[in-house]
UniProtKB/TrEMBL annotation:
Function statement: Involved in the regulation of the intracellular balance of NAD and NADP, and is a key enzyme in the biosynthesis of NADP. Catalyzes specifically the phosphorylation on 2'-hydroxyl of the adenosine moiety of NAD to yield NADP.
Enzyme class: transferase
Keyword entries, A-Z: ATP-binding, Cytoplasm, Kinase, NAD, NADP, Nucleotide-binding, Transferase
EC number: 2.7.1.23
GO MF term list: ATP binding; metal ion binding; NAD binding; NAD+ kinase activity
Family membership: Belongs to the NAD kinase family.
Protein name: NAD kinase
HAMAP family the UniProt entry points to: NAD_kinase
Binding site for NAD(+): 66-67, 71, 139-140, 150, 167, 169, 180-185, 240
Subcellular localization(s) per the UniProt record: Cytoplasm
Pfam families xrefs: NAD_kinase, NAD_kinase_C
Biological process, per Gene Ontology: NAD+ metabolic process; NADP+ biosynthetic process
Length: 287
């Protein structure tokens, strides 16, 4: 049973509610057997920030919303450091621990937890055989128009095989984690996080038969943008990092070799979270 003794806490900067929760966590979790460090960005003070504390932790606690956790997940991408999310945001699919449930957090620190490995995606902008720019995402990679009102044209290729030619406002390539984010708003399917899969969800396609497509996570996706559309297209990773296309207009998307290790307290159930966040069943108890 793994116990965590080197804890770093990060959170959404310049947020009074987050600062209050972080201070409460530091007070309640203090122990002679633990070291607890706080990302200086939380309080806006001088000191080591998250990227400088990676070597000093065996657990990261993220206080905020899903966006805060997405950012932290990319920073820890190449490590095996697990993340526990404390909800101080809005919806909170990923940050599922209530801020005042100190007993649940204490249980996780003492080795009572559920490990949830989440697929991540890598996107790269290619020019010939070279990678010009790249980014990683936990939720989704989005190809989208940005400076034109009309639709854009592009092709999708999967494992080197031509799939489709699209006329739409863009394309969302999402993980199971991201299937309850932007992709769900675009009419995509909800993928259970245990699935080794990703979904391609067109954004407002011109042809109604151009439906979302679910493929194995081992697949390699390439998007080829029509030359006349390149200047009108941007690539977004988790809505936090933007990439610009080269004149070849090619984007490669593949599963990352790294996974996010997301921790949950004892008693966590995915469908409980889904029902609560999406308001399924109106709170009616099961038959």
């Amino acid at each position: 049973m793994q116990r965590f003794q080197r804890i770093v806490i990060t959170g959404k900067p310049a947020d009074p509610a987050v600062r209050e929760t972080v201070d409460g966590l530091v007070e309640h979790l203090a122990s002679p057997h633990r070291t607890i460090r706080v990302d200086a960005a939380v309080h806006g003070t001088k000191g080591p920030e998250l990227s400088e504390l990676i070597d000093e932790m065996d657990l990261l606690i993220v206080v905020g919303g899903d966006g805060t956790l997405l950012r932290a997940a990319r920073q820890l991408l190449t490590t095996e450091i697990p993340i526990l999310g404390v909800n101080r945001g809005r919806l909170g699919f990923l940050v599922d621990v209530a801020p005042d449930h100190f007993d649940e957090i204490e249980a996780v620190l003492n080795g009572q937890f559920i490990v949830d490995e989440r697929l991540m995606l890598d996107a790269s902008i290619r020019h010939g055989d070279q990678t010009i720019a790249s980014c990683s995402a936990l939720n989704e990679i989005v190809l989208q128009k940005w400076n034109t009102a009309r639709m854009i044209e592009f092709e999708t290729w999967i494992d080197g095989e031509f799939c489709n030619r699209h006329r739409s406002d863009g394309l969302i390539v999402c993980t199971p984690t991201g299937s309850t984010a932007y992709a769900m708003s675009g009419g995509g399917p909800i993928l259970h996080p245990g699935l080794n899969a990703m979904a391609l969800v067109p954004i407002c396609p011109h042809t109604l038969s151009n439906r979302p497509l679910v493929i194995g996570a081992g697949s390699q996706v390439e998007v080829r943008v029509a030359p006349e559309e390149i200047e009108h297209v941007r690539i977004s990773c988790d809505s936090q990092i933007d990439l610009t296309l080269t004149d070849e207009g090619r984007i490669a998307i593949a599963p990352s070799v790294h996974r996010l290790h997301l921790l949950h307290p004892p008693g966590y159930r995915y469908f409980d979270i889904l029902r609560a966040k999406l308001r399924w069943g109106d709170g009616t108890p099961p038959c």
